[in-house]
Amino acid sequence: MRDEYDFSKLKGRKNPYTKYLKQPVTIRLDRDTVTYFKKLADKTGVAYQSLINLYLRDCAANKRELEMRWGP
Fold this sequence. Notes:
Structural class: mainly alpha
């Protein structure tokens, strides 16, 4: 190995993985929901945050929309 390297000739380039970075958000979930995903995480060995992300990503990819009716 060299004692010194000349980095002045290197050209910078954009990180190709920036489009895959995750955005941190704060979300309030019911305790039952978190408990469900934590149990599923114990069973599958995948972190519960990743499971929630995978589920939401699947909903977005398949353009699922929640159908709710209020009242009778």
